[in-house]
Amino acid sequence: MTTRRALALLLLLAVVMGLMDGLADWRGMAPSRALDVAYAVVMALVAYLWLRRDAQARQHRVGVMLSGLVIVCSVVGIPVYLLRSRPAGERLGAVGRFFGFVVVAIAASVLVAVPFFLLGPG
User: Fold this and answer.
1) Rg (CA), the chain
2) How far, in Å, CA of 80 to CA of 40, rounded?
3) Does the pLDDT at position 120 exceed 80?
4) Cα separation, 65 vs 60, whole angstroms
5) CB-hemisphere CA count at 13 Å for 38?
6) Cβ contacts of residue 50 below 8 Å, gap of 6+?
7) In 10 A of CB 39, how many CB atoms?
8) I need a surface site. Which of 54, 57, 74, 80 has the fewest CB within 10 A?
9) Taking the alpha carbons of 68, 61, 103, 93 in that order, is the dihedral positive or negative?
10) Alpha-carbon distance 24 to 38, whole Å?
């Protein structure tokens, strides 16, 4: 999996999660906790795969602690990795693009779910 495909998959997962939450609300059901856990595991795995591919492409060695941090808390681990792996002039831009991607993923998830919340019986 390339880094671009990993990012595309993360965005797709965010959209699917928003769709599933919206559908659950529309049907008057509570969102499935098992699906939430599965979603979190898949997101962590894809984030880890992105980390490995990016580190390989940049020939940057990633330690066990940083890899674990990316799996457990990607919102903290990925910026730490970006700050360590990018040249001095590119660090803040890389972190900014990461947080921009997070905002886009959240917005996509919400935009997919909102019609179900507005139109559903819930």
Assistant:
1) 16
2) 20
3) no
4) 15
5) 9
6) 3, 6, 7, 10
7) 17
8) 57
9) positive
10) 16
